[in-house]
Specification:
This protein has eleven helices and 16 strands. By secondary structure, the protein is α+β, with helices and mostly antiparallel strands.
């Protein structure tokens, strides 16, 4: 996973929210799946009824032609607005029930009496095929009704001859020449025969128009049947499987969530414990599937460990340097005190004064070392901030202070530089940086003074005339405690402080030296 994608989307908050929404959606998804499966079962029932209607239609038309041998039955109605045929040869009807959008109609208890007479030919044809459709019902359990063009029953498996069914929704569409189907809730009535009419909660009804020459309506075949029961006919297996799947998915989501969130954090805890116990080479990296927060925690802990290691190395190096640098004056002080203790009464006043001067000088040197080491440690461990300092104004003030004390320090500013030269550094660090460079130039120059030059960039050059710095010393002058003026009180920490400040602020620090001039150059970004 890319860092950009992870930082934007794959966070712990987004993960928990997504999982919560997924768990919340699971019941609705399950209900949707069950609804789709139930629609599928209703469509199977509807397809079966369409096929039965095609045969009943043919039997009825055959019976009509035996009574009235004309091409178009005498009672058929011409349709003023006829639906266009889908094919020149085939005229099929397709299942169309969809419980996701279709309304489930209430049960019907009674039918209306007929308001029109049934044509004798239709009545005779219906009476002729009624025994056949009743026999068929014993095999397929479907309720079958044949209606004339006015929606009046001419043959029925339920003894409803003469009833007017034209007000029922699917029959209304069929009387206009369109196929229609509907799903109704099954009436809650006790069984009459056997057990089959008690199975299922819904009844599927289809109304198929009896079309002659695709222009005349000879009646409607109206069939209904209790749909396949989702519980009984399928033995509850889909429900059981669905519930098992939902339960398994929920458990799986919990395990994945625990793995993605808990495992990376536990691994980090174990690794942090190993580091605290002193084991080396322990990586705090987390797996690729860990969320953003785990990556951020891993990166923060890694950075913390690296910082602690660097500070430990610094403390160890600092301790070694201090121990080495303090060893000489402490030895000198100890020796002087021992000599004073042993020969105090035998020494002259002048000899005692010389030994006390040695102790005093060593104490002053140690004091200078402590002050400078404290300053160096503060700078090296200090985090850079976003403070802005006017370099031009600051350097002008520093140089003016030297000149007031009678020291030969001058400043030269390029005309291309602006009135303000902003650098990202705290004012106290700017002062410490250039005071150390100027003091170094005054100490090691030929007493002709120091010149500070400011050029665009900004780049600052601190220049002094005097003896050249040897090539060997040029590589060591920034090392801690390295000095060629130890006898004059030099601590060897001034240029170390300069380097620490420059490195902390990504400034370029260079030194060039020849027989005539030594130049320390600082380049700021």
């Amino acid at each position: 996973m890319g860092k950009r994608w992870r930082s934007r989307f794959y966070s712990l908050r987004a993960l928990v929210l997504s999982v919560s929404l997924l768990v919340l959606a699971l019941p609705f998804v399950g209900l949707g799946v069950l609804r789709i499966m139930e629609s599928f079962l209703h469509r199977q029932t509807e397809a079966k009824l369409i096929a039965e209607a095609a045969y009943v239609q043919l039997i009825y038309l055959k019976a009509v032609r035996q009574i009235d041998p004309t091409d178009v039955p005498v009672f058929a109605k011409p349709m003023p607005h006829w639906p266009p045929p889908k094919d020149e040869v085939f005229h099929p009807f397709f299942p169309q029930i969809d419980l996701l959008k279709d309304e489930v109609l209430p049960p019907i208890w009674e039918s209306s009496p007929a308001t029109s007479e049934i044509h004798p030919a239709a009545k005779l044809a219906g009476a002729a095929i009624e025994p056949l459709i009743k026999e068929v019902q014993t095999q397929n359990l479907s309720g079958i009704r044949l209606l004339d063009p006015n929606g009046v029953v001419v043959a029925s498996t339920g003894g409803e001859q003469g009833a007017d069914l034209s007000d029922r929704r699917p029959i209304k569409q069929a009387l206009d020449g369109y196929y229609a189907s509907a799903v109704r809730r099954r009436p809650n009535i006790p069984a009459q025969q056997g057990i089959f009419n008690r199975r299922g909660r819904y009844r599927v009804s289809v109304a198929v128009p009896i079309l002659v020459q695709q222009r005349y309506l000879a009646g409607v075949v109206y069939l209904n049947r209790t749909s396949l029961s989702f519980i009984l006919d399928v033995w509850r297996t889909p429900y059981t499987v669905t519930l098992i799947v939902l339960f398994a998915v929920t458990i799986l989501i919990g395990l994945i969530l625990a793995s993605v969130i808990t495992r990376p954090l536990k691994n980090l805890v174990d690794k942090a414990r190993s580091i605290s116990e002193g084991r080396g080479d322990v990586s705090l990296a987390v797996s690729k599937v860990a969320p953003r927060e785990a990556y951020e925690l891993s990166a923060a802990l890694t950075a913390m460990v690296e910082t602690l290691e660097k500070r430990l190395d610094y403390v160890q190096e600092f301790t070694r340097s201090v121990s080495h640098e303090f060893k000489t004056p402490l030895t000198s002080i100890r020796g002087s005190i021992e000599l004073l203790q042993e020969g105090m009464t035998e020494m002259t006043e002048q000899e005692r004064g010389e030994f006390l001067d040695i102790v005093h000088a060593d104490v002053l040197r140690m004091n200078r070392l402590v002050v400078r080491l404290t300053e160096l440690a503060r700078i090296e461990l200090r985090r850079p901030d976003s403070s802005q300092t006017d370099l031009r104004g600051c350097l002008t003030g520093i140089v003016a202070g030297y000149r007031e004390s009678g020291q030969a320090v001058e400043i030269q500013i390029d005309s291309l530089c602006g009135r303000r030269i902003e650098v990202e550094m705290a004012p106290d660090l700017v002062e410490t940086l250039f005071v150390n460079l100027i003091d170094n130039g005054l100490r090691h120059g030929d007493n002709s003074g120091v010149r500070v030059e400011i050029t665009p960039g900004p780049t600052i050059a601190v220049i002094n005339k005097g003896p050249a710095i040897s090539t060997a010393n040029q590589s060591r002058i920034f090392d801690r405690f390295f000095t060629t003026a130890r006898a004059a009180g030099g601590t060897g920490l001034g240029l170390s402080i300069v380097r620490a400040i420059a490195q902390a602020h990504q400034a370029r620090l260079d030194v060039t030296s020849n027989d005539r001039v030594t130049v320390f150059t600082l380049g700021f970004r």
